[in-house]
Each structure stands twice: as structure tokens, then as C-alpha cells.
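hiii so um. not sure if this is the right channel but i have a protein structure encoded as C-alpha cells and i wanna go backwards to a sequence. like what aa goes where. can anyone help
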């Protein structure tokens, strides 16, 4: 962050500048536009790029209802696949976990590129929101004052532009500029490194099951996540920092067959691997999520490794609260939403982080090389299928259905 730019003629003014057009930023923008609040979204990539970037695919039902309530779920409700169960595979057997029977709730499977495509269209084309793509070198100024501003280089002219605003929504993900703009010592960043890598794969292949599969195998974890009738996401545990080039087609499918193998399991439907990258699993949480006039949301504020498929859901939770709080502040002068914003978000964030850690042990314990951990991991897994209380607790956390956080 640099100091305010009192002498720079601010070419433009918007009540809110939103940095980043991911699920968080676009949802905040849509909520503001629906209430007639002007805002500007600044996005480093092109529209085509963000509409095609493959990532998440699982939405929790409360998040879908939140989008629906804000008029943002029409396509999603028409096209998403509804999942009612997941399946654990361990000790050579298949264990189906029907979470809908326990909670009455489902997961909605709708790839993130479609979520983003719908949100951009609604924001820019329907609600008339301003958005600038391909901006470079975004910088935030005067965040500790009541006259912050945002500057960036315009891709068309190469000129620096300054936008004055009342609030900056930092929604620019894990590698953005917003978190980096927090003055040292003003926020605590808590980190957790799992010391585990996941080879994240997208296969041009139909799903091999009607549900998510978790293979908890002594060779390492393997996951199967249906994305669409043509595309399936797979994960393979690997050493952190592994080179995806060391995972040719044959090796990937041989490992997936082994780790997801179980008595009576149908063979995997194989296909070309259209994405192959190694994720070093880690989490972080920024506390508080607010500094002066900068309000962080989504991955900019907290990263949760994709172990429990929670990141996009948390980004939407933040965005609902932030959008509503900004509307209340800017249309009615009501500050209470903004005052409670960080704490309200962080309660769910920490709960989801704890669940991800718990699930990480379930996924990775049998491959830890430590026979004691392997034994307790299998006990955890078995408990899900022998204890209705343990099953109910798992279902509640997996679906994010707790009454309070
Ligand atoms: P995003 O989606 O990263 O959007 C941030 C946007 O900001 C832009 N940007 C900038 N713009 C201007 N100036 C700058 N300096 C900028 N720097 C960055 C970026 O181009 C981008 O468009 O953050 P947001 O909105 O907070 O959304 C978070 C989610 O994207 C993320 O949590 C999920 O993808 C996590 N995740 C999953 N979450 C789920 O809920 N369910 C899942 O099944 C799930 N699977 C996943 C995942 C993440 C994965 N990756 C990325 C590790 C699977 C994978 C493989």
C-alpha cells in the first residue's frame, strides 16, 4: 500500500472498487448493482480467461440458496447435478455415505467457470456494472483514510488511471495485491502447511461413478469428482513440489486404478488428461479481514486447501455478507454489517479449516508410513459407518449445515 494520493486528480469516483472478478468479487458486484450502488470491478485477466479457468465444482446447498435469493442461480438450478452421497474406498471395500438421508441436503455440482460466466453476464450485461479486464499493476492507496483510491495501468493506453472510492473490496484471490497491501503488523496471518502434494487432474472422460469417490489407500489418497458428463476431476496424493511431467498418462491411470480399486467397483472410464498440476496443500487465514477501508473476501482473506471442497463456498459466504453490509452502509448509513463482517465470516472459515484438517488425516493417514496413524485413520473411517452420531457430525460438516458457526 502507498499513502493516499491527495494531489492526483482522480479521474473517476465509484463508491466501491472491487479488485478481482472471481466468485467473491462478482457476487459482491451483483449485490451492489441490485441495490443501485455503483461499483467498478478491476480484473487482471481477460473475460475469456476467467470464464474458462477450471477450478472448483462443488457448491453447498446454503450457498446455492444464497445465490438464488440474490437472483444469481437461474442457470445453476437448471443445469447443476445434484449429489446425495459420496463413497469412501478403504481396506479394499466400498462404503457409500448417503448424506442426503442424514441432512436432507445435497451438493450441487456446477463447475466454477460456469459460476463465473453466469456472474459476469449478470453483473456486466444485465445489471450494467462496470468492469475492466486486463488491468495491470493495481495498487491501493489511502486505505487507512476515508478517501482511499485504487490505481492501475490501462491495458489499451498503457496509462496509469486513478479511481477514488469509499471502500475497496479485496477479492483478488490467493496471489492478489489486496492481502499484500495490509500494513505489516496490522493483520495476523495464520498458516498451515500439510506437507502433502496433490496432483490435480482434469480428464476428458465421463465420471466413473454417480458420486464423489475418496480412495484412502496405503499408496496415497486418490479422489474422483464428477464435473460434467464429459469431464471428471481426479486427485492423486504425491510429494509436495512433484513435477507433473513425472506423471505421464499411463502412470496416472495405473495409480488411480490401484488407489480407487475396491471389491465390485466398476472400472474407471479413462480419457485424455487436459489439466495436470501439483498443488502443495496449505491453508491460511487473515485476521481481521478488514483494514480501514479495505475489506477482504474469499481466497484473498483465507485459503483452504481443496481437501473438503470448501473454498468457493467460503468466498460466496463472505460475498453475501460483504455485499449486504456495503449496501446497508452506502444506502442507509448503517455500519453494523461492516463492523461485524470479519468476525461473522471467520467463524465459518475456522470451522471449515478445522474440518479440512480432520478430513486430511482421514485421506492421508493410511499412507503416512506410520502404522499407528494408519490404524487410527481406519478407525475414524469405520466409525463413520458404525456410529450414527459420528455420521451425523460428518454430514453436517461436509455440507456446511450447522445451525450456527
Ligand atoms: P479467485 O477465484 O481466485 O478470483 C480472484 C480474481 O482476482 C484476479 N486477480 C486480480 N485482479 C486484479 N488485480 C490483481 N492484482 C489481481 N490478482 C488476481 C484473478 O485473476 C481472479 O479472477 O478468488 P475468489 O473469488 O475468492 O474465489 C475463490 C475460489 O476460486 C476458490 O476458493 C476455489 O476455486 C477453491 N476450490 C474449490 N472450492 C470449492 O468450494 N469447491 C471445490 O470443489 C473446489 N475445488 C478449488 C478446487 C481450488 C482449486 N485450485 C485453484 C487449487 C479445486 C482446485 C484445483
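sure thing!! here u go:
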Amino acid at each position: 500500500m502507498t499513502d493516499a494520493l491527495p494531489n492526483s486528480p482522480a479521474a473517476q469516483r465509484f463508491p466501491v472498487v472491487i479488485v478481482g472478478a472471481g466468485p467473491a468479487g462478482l457476487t459482491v458486484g451483483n449485490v451492489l448493482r441490485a441495490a443501485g450502488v455503483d461499483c467498478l470491478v478491476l480484473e487482471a485477466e481477460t473475460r475469456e480467461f476467467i470464464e474458462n479457468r477450471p477450478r472448483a465444482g462443488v457448491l453447498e446447498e446454503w450457498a446455492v440458496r444464497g445465490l438464488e435469493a440474490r437472483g444469481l442461480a437461474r442457470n445453476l438450478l437448471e443445469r447443476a447435478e445434484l449429489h446425495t452421497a459420496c463413497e469412501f474406498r478403504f481396506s479394499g471395500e466400498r462404503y457409500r455415505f448417503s448424506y442426503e438421508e442424514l441432512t436432507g441436503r445435497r451438493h450441487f455440482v456446477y463447475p466454477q467457470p460456469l459460476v463465473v460466466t453466469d456472474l459476469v453476464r449478470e453483473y456486466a450485461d444485465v445489471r450494467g456494472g462496470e468492469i475492466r479486464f486486463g488491468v495491470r499493476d493495481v495498487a491501493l492507496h489511502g486505505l487507512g483514510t476515508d478517501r482511499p483510491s485504487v490505481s492501475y495501468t490501462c491495458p489499451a493506453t498503457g496509462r496509469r488511471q486513478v479511481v477514488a472510492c469509499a471502500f475497496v473490496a479485496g477479492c483478488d484471490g490467493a496471489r492478489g495485491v489486496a492481502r499484500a497491501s495490509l500494513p505489516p503488523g496490522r493483520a495476523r496471518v495464520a498458516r498451515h502447511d500439510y506437507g502433502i502434494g496433490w496432483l490435480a487432474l482434469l480428464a476428458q472422460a465421463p465420471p466413473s461413478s454417480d458420486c464423489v469417490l475418496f480412495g484412502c489407500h496405503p499408496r496415497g489418497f486418490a479422489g474422483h469428482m464428477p464435473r460434467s458428463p464429459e469431464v471428471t476431476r481426479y486427485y492423486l496424493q504425491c510429494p509436495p513440489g512433484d513435477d507433473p511431467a513425472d506423471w505421464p498418462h499411463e502412470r496416472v491411470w495405473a495409480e488411480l486404478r490401484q488407489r480407487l480399486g475396491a471389491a465390485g467397483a466398476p472400472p474407471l472410464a479413462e480419457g485424455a488428461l487436459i489439466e495436470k498440476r501439483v498443488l502443495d496443500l496449505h491453508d491460511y487465514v487473515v485476521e481481521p479481514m478488514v483494514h480501514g477501508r479495505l475489506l477482504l473476501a474469499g481466497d484473498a482473506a483465507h485459503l483452504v486447501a481443496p481437501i473438503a471442497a470448501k473454498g468457493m463456498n467460503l468466498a460466496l459466504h463472505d460475498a453475501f455478507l460483504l455485499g449486504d453490509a456495503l449496501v446497508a452502509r452506502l444506502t442507509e448509513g448503517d455500519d453494523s454489517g461492516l463492523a461485524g463482517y470479519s468476525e461473522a465470516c471467520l467463524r465459518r472459515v475456522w470451522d471449515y479449516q478445522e474440518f479440512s484438517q480432520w478430513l486430511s488425516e482421514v485421506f492421508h493417514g493410511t499412507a503416512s508410513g506410520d502404522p499407528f496413524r494408519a490404524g487410527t485413520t481406519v478407525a475414524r473411517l469405520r466409525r463413520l459407518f458404525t456410529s450414527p452420531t459420528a455420521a451425523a457430525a460428518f454430514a453436517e460438516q461436509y455440507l456446511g449445515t450447522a445451525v450456527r458457526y
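oh and Residues 24 and 310 are 13 Å apart (CA to CA).
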